[in-house]
Specification:
The complex is a heterodimer of chains A (283) and B (409). Chain A has a single domain (4-278), classed as ABC transporter involved in vitamin B12 uptake, BtuC, CATH 1.10.3470. Chain A is 75% helix and 3% strand. Chain A has eleven helices and two strands, in the order ααααββααααααα. Chain A starts with a helix and ends in a 5-residue tail after the last helix. In chain B, 40% of the residues lie in helices and 19% in strands. With 409 residues, chain B is of the alpha/beta class. Chain B folds into two domains: 2-156 and 301-378, Response regulator (Rossmann fold, 3-Layer(aba) Sandwich), CATH 3.40.50.2300; 161-288 and 383-399, 3-Layer(aba) Sandwich (Rossmann fold). In chain B, the strands form four sheets. Chain B has a seven-stranded mixed beta sheet, with helices on both faces. Chain B has a four-stranded mixed beta sheet with strand order 1-3-2-4, with helices on both faces. In chain B, strands 5-6 form a two-stranded parallel ribbon. Classes of the chains: A mainly alpha (283), B alpha/beta (409).
């Protein structure tokens, strides 16, 4: 039987890992839920941002927070450009899967051409710092990631619920024609949301550069689990994505601690199926 | 995408002929270096240039290109230049299978070379068998799966590495000032790593080293936090990790976040550069077949290959540019193919296979034979250790570089 310390540590690790799932799920959830576009290139954009952070940090010694100040607006611009293409070619929900998948493949190849297929690691002196709390250790970077994910998710949730723009976006997602009748310019708002989703990918990418090891094929590492997170958290619900991320992360980690690490992938999708069958009010 | 190297160049041949003519005219000795000429011998193969195995394939590609140039700078194959037709199998066995079919039936290559990693090799081996082609491969970690009698290993794993190599490690552990009594075996479910991990668990138990924990994780595992917590709690004398790529770095970082450093730790197939250069990699042990040190550097051609590899890896923008066992696997593949062609004096696959079965071949890995089970010869798997951010062979002692000693906790 695992000790209480092991279980507690696994829970902490899992919740913090879930922060990354939530952060990656945030942009995807907004795009899918409010624009009806399933943006598979979200993961590639996050990795592009991670590689840019790595490049700036390793070759130009730019601190990651300054990198983020450059990379996140650049991602926002890419999001706008991407939406311009969606708009121009009248891409619908199903076609978006194929088109954004192609876009992700192109980005993967471009990343490999420039940075090669070899592993890249952005070494920092704070990458393995931890805070000791009783018998437990809390990794600092992951804690910062969770805090940033929490602030972004909460801020976005408030923005969608309390501001005119947010309410207009939600109304347009419900029924674009009726919203337009009330003066909502859905097309312009969609650009804003698309840029925002890509910017969130940029934020996630900055943390990926600091926490993970980069290789072009790893663009797809989080795909399955983040889709599970977005569906469990309800499409277009930023706080839902974050809490679903925590739930999946904690479940995977506890499965690793109690049973076997090989059970982790089974757990995330089992949770998804269980919640879809249970169909609670919040899901 | 198709890459072609070593294509016969008319200008080069004409230059060679002119040079030879000039040498004869001025009465120079009649021995003139042969320049391959005629229709190229096309050697086809795939590598995982994209996908999750691409990190290693790029190393193999550089080594293969070096070898094709090296062979063509001598006599090619039977006096004809060698052309390497390389395709990208995208790290997918099904793609590898289709591409070997294409190489043999559409591109009509004369010979083939094996792809990288167990699964693509198995896929390609079926095609090779169907068309009766010799296939030399350097990275099939489960030798017993190589059941095709015209498939040959370029890397000396030996027929039963799951038994022989754990005993090399256990011998090394027994030589520690305080021999480890307990072990944690942690492994990726990647087939060749899992195969070796099961062997390590069995052999450890047989030799009285208590296995406190045996854990398997999915290949491509994202989070090592909970696994690290279990490793820390077990606190064994020795940690054995059946890792691939960056998994070892991820695990060691997670352990450091828990303020835990394993007493002694071994890693099966990690990415060599990142682990050697990581602050957590100090004294890490790892499997190898050679390193660019003595006694290996005295093997024929090794110094030249090491220098060429560094030059080309730097040019290719690779972060780790030192030649290692991965690159040498591909060098060995081409050395064996060249020896087979020259020995059989033929491009006929059956003749090459028959010659290889009867004759030893000198490679960068030393002299290899193919007369044992599954066409394997003697196992030559060694242990290296990170010392001052560089890999050094430390076990068996006779293969350690002068002045290098195994460091145990």
């Amino acid at each position: 039987m695992p000790s209480a310390t092991l279980l507690g540590q696994a829970l902490i690790s899992g919740v913090l890992a879930g922060g990354m799932y939530g952060l990656l799920g945030l942009g995807l959830s907004l795009s899918w839920g409010l624009l009806r576009l399933v943006n598979l290139s979200h993961f590639a954009l996050a990795f592009l941002a991670a590689y840019l952070t790595y490049e700036l940090g390793t070759n130009y010694h730019v601190a990651p927070w300054w990198s983020a100040a450059m990379v996140v607006p650049a991602m926002f611009a890419i999001g706008l450009l991407q939406h311009w293409l969606f708009d121009k070619f009248r891409v619908n929900e199903l076609a978006s899967l194929l088109i954004t998948f192609s876009f992700a493949i192109i980005l993967e190849v471009a990343i490999q051409l420039y940075w090669t297929a070899d592993y890249r690691r952005f070494e920092t002196h704070y990458s393995t710092l931890s805070i000791k709390a009783g018998p437990f250790y809390i990794p600092v970077l992951e804690l910062v990631l969770c805090t940033v994910a929490g602030v972004l998710a909460w801020g976005t949730w408030l923005w969608l619920r309390r501001t005119y723009v947010g309410k207009a976006l939600r109304a347009a997602a419900e029924d674009a024609d009726i919203a337009a009748a009330y003066g909502v310019d859905h097309k312009k708002l969609a650009y804003l949301l698309s840029g925002l989703g890509a910017a969130y990918a940029g934020v996630a990418g900055t943390f990926i550069a600091l926490i993970a090891t980069l290789a072009p094929a790893q663009i797809w590492t989080w795909l399955g689990v983040v889709f599970a997170v977005v569906i469990i958290g309800r499409l277009g619900n930023p706080l839902g994505a974050l809490f679903a991320g925590f739930l999946i992360g904690a479940s995977e980690s506890l499965a690793m601690a109690v049973f076997s690490p090989a059970w982790a992938p089974v757990v995330s999708f089992s949770v998804l199926i269980a919640i879809l069958l249970w169909n609670p009010e919040w899901a | 995408m198709q890459h072609r190297t070593g294509v016969w160049r008319r200008r080069r041949v004409l230059t060679g002929l002119a040079g030879a003519g000039f040498a004869m005219a001025v009465g120079a000795p009649a021995i003139v270096r042969a320049v391959p000429s005629g229709k190229p011998v096309r050697v086809g193969g795939t590598l995982s240039l994209t996908g999750f195995l691409a990190q290693t394939a790029v190393i193999h590609k550089i080594a293969a290109e070096m070898m094709v140039e090296d062979i063509n700078s001598r006599n090619g194959f039977l006096g004809r230049p060698v052309e390497y037709v390389l395709l990208d199998d995208q790290s997918k066995p099904d793609v590898a299978r289709s591409l070997y079919e294409k190489l043999i039936t559409v591109d009509k290559v004369d010979l083939i070379q094996g792809p990288y990693a167990t699964a693509p090799i198995l896929a390609a081996m079926g095609v090779a068998q169907r068309y009766g082609k010799v296939m030399i491969q350097s990275s099939m970690g489960i030798p017993k799966l190589q059941t095709y009698d015209m498939a040959f290993p370029a890397t000396p794993f030996g027929p039963e590495p799951d038994k022989t190599y754990p005993n090399v490690l256990l011998d090394m552990m027994a030589s520690f000032p305080t021999p480890p009594k307990t072990i944690v075996v942690l492994t990726s479910k990647f087939p060749s790593a899992q195969f070796m991990a099961q062997g390590m668990r069995e052999q450890s138990e047989k030799r009285g080293v208590k296995v406190l924990l045996y854990l398997e994780y999915e290949s491509g595992n994202r989070d090592f936090g909970a696994i690290a917590a279990r490793v820390k709690e077990a606190n064994a004398d020795f940690l054995w990790v059946g890792s691939l790529g960056l998994e070892s770095n991820q695990l060691l970082e997670s352990l450091r976040k828990l303020d835990y450093t394993p007493k002694n730790h071994f890693h099966l197939y990690p990415a060599p550069g990142p682990l050697a250069l990581s602050p957590d990699g100090d004294k890490a042990l790892c499997s190898t077949f050679l390193e660019p040190d003595e006694p290996f550097m005295s093997r024929p051609g090794m110094k030249k290959f090491a220098a060429q590899y560094t030059e080309r890896a730097t040019k290719a923008n690779l972060p780790y540019t030192i030649i290692d066992a991965q690159a040498c696997g591909m060098i060995s593949e081409w050395q064996i193919l060249e020896a087979g062609v020259n020995g059989a004096k033929s491009l006929d696959d059956k003749a090459i296979a028959a010659w290889l079965k009867k004759n030893p071949v000198d490679t960068v890995y030393g002299t290899v034979r193919f007369d044992g089970p599954f066409n394997h010869g003697t196992a030559l798997q060694l242990v290296k250790q990170v010392q001052n951010k560089a890999w050094k062979v430390v076990w068996p002692k006779e293969f350690a570089a002068p002045g290098v000693k195994l460091i145990a906790s």
